[in-house]
Design goal:
Layout (H helix, E strand, L loop, with lengths): L1 E3 L19 H9 L6 E3 L6 H4 L5 H10 L1 H22 L4 E3 L21 H11 L6 E5 L6 H7 L5 E4 L6 H14 L6 E5 L14 H18 L4 E5 L5 H15 L5
Parallel strand pairs: 1-2, 1-3, 3-7, 4-5, 4-6, 6-7
Helix pairs in contact: 1-9, 3-4, 4-5, 7-8, 8-9
Length: 258
């Protein structure tokens, strides 16, 4: 399992929002570094032409003028997402451990601590290079990824699923049933938010549930997505459990699930 990560993501000075809170990324790093099977890889910053896959020039300029450090880190997060998707296309499952998140970033607007649509940029890059003809996106963040939807709705070859069940058992069943009924795709992208945890804002899922979500994603990827899967970090705000939840999901996502 590849972990796409850059030390700059530890920088909490780009914003005062909860997604940039000091210690957030560190809480995940401490858990992931317990695993010998996780391979850490540094990304490059996304170029403007990469950001233009989703965002018009005037919006990109607006973010740059607002805060140059914010622009730098957001572009680096987009670059990590590009890397994760490219490696997944090659058959190497990857997770982008990034700040800031992206699933609330629409082409010309954003909210919810997001600035560039990391998932949209990563997926559209693969389409542009003719590497894929279809994609399935699972977004299990507490909040519906309106930015993902708005950024990719014009692409009829992209399917996006946001689970809505309010009960944890029904939630997992909803994901399982959706995967069962879905057609074949060339890649699975996961907007992985961990704020549905019982000790986070959503108050619903357990740490073991996140491992089960990883197993479901791995199984779906193997059966219907040519074994290609990548995930991008979105929400999750309780540092006491965040790292454990991310680690559980990634262990489920691994082929051996151990």
């Amino acid at each position: 399992m590849n972990i796409i990560y850059h030390p700059e993501f530890l920088n909490s000075n780009y914003s005062q929002d909860p997604a940039a809170e000091k210690g957030r990324i560190l809480s995940i790093l401490e858990e992931l570094k317990k695993e010998d099977s996780f391979n850490f890889i540094e990304p490059e910053t996304a170029r403007r032409k990469d950001l233009n896959l989703i965002h018009p020039p005037e919006y990109i300029d607006k973010i740059y003028r607002r805060n140059k450090l914010l622009y730098q880190i957001a572009a680096l997060a987009a670059g990590a997402s590009l890397k994760a998707a490219e490696m997944a296309w090659k058959g190497e499952s990857s997770f982008a451990l990034i700040r800031p998140p992206g699933h609330h970033a629409s082409p010309s607007s954003s909210w919810g601590f997001c600035f560039f649509n990391n998932m949209g940029i990563a997926i559209e890059n693969l389409f542009k290079k003719n590497k894929i003809n279809s994609a399935f996106i699972l977004d299990f963040d507490l909040h519906i990824g309106d930015g993902n939807i708005n950024s990719l709705k014009s692409n009829s070859q992209v399917s996006i699923f946001n689970p809505k069940a309010r009960n944890r058992k029904k939630y997992l069943k909803e994901v399982k049933d959706t995967f069962k009924d879905a057609g074949e795709h060339d890649i699975l992208g996961v907007s992985a938010g961990f704020d549905e945890h019982i000790k986070d804002w959503g108050g619903k899922l357990t740490t073991e549930d996140y491992k089960d979500l990883g197993i479901l994603c791995r199984d779906f990827s193997d059966r219907k997505c040519k074994g290609r899967v990548f995930a991008l970090l979105e929400g999750g705000y309780n540092h006491q459990v965040l790292g454990q939840n991310v680690r559980a999901f990634l262990k489920g996502l691994q082929k051996d699930n151990t």
